[in-house]
């Protein structure tokens, strides 16, 4: 493919190409929290006008991945360490409720999809690609949420999982570097089995432990890598 053809192809995709690229770079922390996103520089980078760039930034803002400041400049959304305890509290509740409902209400079709997503995550882990892992992790948990048949809880859960993907990236990095714990694959397998057996209480217990492992390792990562006076809260999610 010639350079000219490639430019035309990228231009033809409009804002979606910019959105997909920036979203992936934000979630993978290639674009770090607080990074300035200048429309003109991005337009030059993607060889586009500023309009599709602006549209992409608006959509990223709707997902709370970028923030527009009072001076109208746009930055990659900070990871709010101070609010992490509240975030993980909400995640714990959403994760437990959706997993409980899945165990109670799942169909055979639901079970097949959850199993498929569980295998996809295990495959992603083998690649070592943290972005692929976080996307596959989200798809696994959303398959569980859809099995719970409550669109409101599923929607809330989806938002929380999306907001947590950058923190999950740090979670993966910590586990790989320290070899303390495992990359969620064992926990996913146990959750799948509990849902298959329609064991609601065990599904609840495993979902809670799943949140707790994520919380503990994220806090350990932050304490190991950053000097901060911000309290990260207790080392356990609410019982």
List descriptors:
239 residues, disordered C terminus, Four Helix Bundle (Hemerythrin (Met), subunit A), mainly alpha, globular, Arc Repressor Mutant, subunit A
Report a brief summary of the structure:
Residues 12-79 form the HTH gntR-type domain. It comes from Rhizobium paranaense. The chain is an all-alpha fold.
Describe this structure in words.
The chain folds into 2 domains: 13-76, Winged helix-like DNA-binding domain superfamily/Winged helix DNA-binding domain (Arc Repressor Mutant, subunit A), CATH 1.10.10.10; 81-226, Four Helix Bundle (Hemerythrin (Met), subunit A) (Up-down Bundle), CATH 1.20.120.530. 71% of the residues lie in helices and 3% in strands. Helix 2 (15-27) packs across helix 4 and helix 10 packs antiparallel against helix 11. The chain has a two-stranded antiparallel ribbon with strand order 1-2. The chain is globular and about 55 Å long. A hairpin with a 5-residue loop joins strand 1 (66-68) and strand 2 (74-76). With 239 residues, it is mostly helical. The longest helix has 26 residues, at 200-225.
CATH superfamily of the largest domain: GntR ligand-binding domain-like
Across the major sheet, the strand order is 1-2
Q: What structural category do the secondary elements indicate?
A: mainly alpha
What is the general shape?
Answer: globular
Order of helices and strands: HHHHEEHHHHHHH
Tally of helical runs = 11
CATH topology name of the largest domain, in short, is Four Helix Bundle (Hemerythrin (Met), subunit A)
| Through-space gap between termini | 57 Å
Instruction: Indicate the CATH class of the largest domain.
Output: Mainly Alpha
Average pLDDT number? 86
Q: How many β-strand stretches? A: 2
Main β sheet profile: 2 strands, antiparallel
Characterize the quaternary organization of these chains.
single chain
Q: Which CATH-level-2 architecture of the largest domain?
A: Up-down Bundle
Radius of gyration: 19 Å
Beta percentage is under 5%
Number of domains: 2
Taking pLDDT < 50 over at least 5 consecutive residues as the criterion, the unreliable ranges are: 1-12, 227-239
Helix content: over 70%
């Amino acid at each position: 493919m010639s350079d000219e053809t490639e430019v035309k192809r990228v231009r033809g995709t409009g804002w979606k190409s910019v959105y997909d690229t920036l979203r992936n770079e934000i979630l993978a922390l290639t674009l770090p929290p607080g990074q300035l996103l200048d429309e003109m520089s991005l337009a030059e980078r993607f060889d586009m006008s500023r309009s599709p760039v602006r549209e992409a930034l608006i959509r990223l803002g709707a997902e709370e991945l970028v923030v527009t400041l009072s001076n109208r400049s746009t930055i990659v959304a900070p990871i709010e360490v101070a609010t992490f305890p509240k975030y993980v509290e909400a995640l714990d509740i959403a994760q437990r409720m959706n997993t409980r409902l899945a165990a109670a209400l799942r169909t055979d079709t639901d079970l097949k999809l959850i199993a498929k997503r569980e295998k996809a995550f295990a495959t992603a882990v083998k690649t070592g690609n943290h972005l692929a892992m976080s996307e596959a992790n989200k798809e696994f948990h959303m398959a569980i949420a859809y099995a719970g048949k409550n669109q409101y809880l599923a929607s809330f859960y989806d938002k929380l999982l999306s907001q947590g993907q950058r923190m999950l990236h740090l979670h993966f990095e910590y586990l790989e570097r320290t070899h303390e714990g495992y990359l969620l694959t064992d926990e996913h397998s146990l959750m799948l089995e509990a849902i298959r057996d329609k064991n609601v209480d065990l599904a609840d217990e495993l979902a809670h432990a799943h949140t707790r492992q994520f919380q503990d390792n994220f806090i350990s990562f932050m304490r190991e890598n950053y000097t901060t006076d911000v309290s990260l809260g207790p080392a356990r999610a609410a019982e």
